[in-house]
TrEMBL record:
Cellular compartments annotated: Cytoplasm
Gene Ontology MF: a single term: rRNA (guanine-N7-)-methyltransferase activity
Role, per record: Specifically methylates the N7 position of a guanine in 16S rRNA.
Binding sites annotated in the UniProt record for S-adenosyl-L-methionine: G84, L89, R150
Record keyword Methyltransferase present: yes
Signal peptide stretch: none
Name of the protein described by the UniProt record: Ribosomal RNA small subunit methyltransferase G
Organism of derivation: Glycomyces harbinensis
GO cellular component term, pick one: cytosol
Name of a matching Pfam family: GidB
């Protein structure tokens, strides 16, 4: 039997206008879009098995906001690919926070692809497209300025999936947890073979997530493609 979130947990899921404005800008349209996205994730997202009911209280802090703050690392007007997008994370929050970006959500599972199309149609995000594919099926390769990923696979696998999609001079940005340093150490040889330079670990969102419940910034491993 699946546990439903308690009333106290749901109360914690509320996010202040201050936090939303610090991440998405003081823009009514962007804030309305991201609120609508969270609403869809917490309703039809549960019905379709995109997320579990226990994730509802954590949608803002652990998922949506921590995805959006990665925009700090992305240059203006970048072509972004989100590998293994799932329910649209991190790609949809990034596209909402940064209307100047063009974001392609790459996802192989049809039910998730259907959900992503419904989200885009329902809330009107013009700078997004959805591609049903695995990373190794994306064509053309080597076109993206930035390739993002979140909760997809260990870094040792991600480098072989993501770096080939980035142009030379572009980069991959993988949202990781506290084990990021160990993953970087273990993947050194694979990074080099995939054409990557030195891996850097950056913490995004520090000082932006004002609510006490949202105090976990995003730890991101970035690797520039050098050949």
């Amino acid at each position: 039997m699946t546990e439903e979130p308690t009333s106290s947990e749901i109360a914690e899921a509320n996010v202040s206008r201050e936090t939303l404005a610090s991440v998405f800008g003081d823009d009514e349209e962007r804030i309305a879009r991201v609120e609508a996205y969270v609403g869809l994730l917490s309703t039809i997202g549960i019905e379709r098995g995109i997320i579990g009911p226990r994730e509802v209280p954590r949608l803002w802090g652990r998922h949506v906001l921590s995805s959006a703050v990665v925009e700090e690392l992305i240059p203006e007007k970048a072509d972004v690919i989100d590998v293994g997008s799932g329910g649209g994370l991190p790609g949809i929050p990034l596209a909402i926070a940064r209307p100047d970006l063009w974001v392609t959500l790459v996802e192989p599972m049809q039910r998730r692809v259907d959900f992503l199309h419904e989200v885009i149609e329902a809330i009107g995000i013009p700078n997004l497209e959805v591609l049903r594919a695995r990373a190794d099926e994306v064509d053309p390769r080597g076109r993206a300025d930035v390739v993002v990923s979140r909760a997809v696979a260990p870094l040792s696998k991600l480098v072989g999936w993501c770096l080939p999609l980035a142009k030379v001079g572009g980069m991959m940005a993988a949202i990781k947890g506290q084990g990021a340093s160990l993953e970087v150490t273990e993947s050194g040889g694979l990074i080099k073979r995939a054409g990557g330079g030195k891996a850097e670990i950056t913490v995004c969102g520090e000082g932006k997530l004002a609510d006490p419940v949202f105090t976990v910034p995003a730890t991101v491993v970035t690797i520039k493609r050098i050949r």
